[in-house]
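TOPIC: backbone geometry
CONTENTS: sequence, structure tokens:
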Amino acid sequence: MNGRRLTRKGVQTRDRIVAVAADLMQQRGVARTTVEDIQEAAGISSSQLYHYFADKGALVAAVIELQGQRVLGVQHLGLDRVTCLADLWRWRDLVVGIRTAQNCVGGCPLGSLAADLAETDAVARAQLARWFAEWERILRTGLASMASAGQFADGTDTDRLALALLAATQGGLLLSQVNRDTAALTAAMDTVITHIGTLLTEAPSDTVRRH
């Protein structure tokens, strides 16, 4: 874009192009998705695409933003009000339920983009890092609210627990894609959440998830 303000129709067209590009890149990978592929799928000309995006890198940046918003929107559904361990289990069920509904096809949209871009595009890597940091912040905020309520023993490093939860979730999502089942995802998330339960001042009845 050249800095001109878009009309409502222009915004809709731009958003449609980004959504189409996001879906193609999720299916094929960034490198294997060409500008021509996106033009064909979106039903637009080359001049239309370059009206909104200076180059493929600008379009990739817009895709990262869209996927970040999509992923974090789902995480907010499960993590906006974390007041006790049961809320973490409900979030776990949300994540696993989504993967089950997807038949474990496709990876985490942010994780897939990171795998494609982290070693080849420093700008994209920094952009993705910001989205992962925001995901971690949501987890930190939830655990911090439990700590503020006196639910954790003194000295508990809730920031480190949040990072462990994020790492467990990402690793589990990747293996669920490879193996086409949720066993690794449930094992990783269950293990970290169960460990969090052992650090509470009063262990609840659902510290260990019953299967």
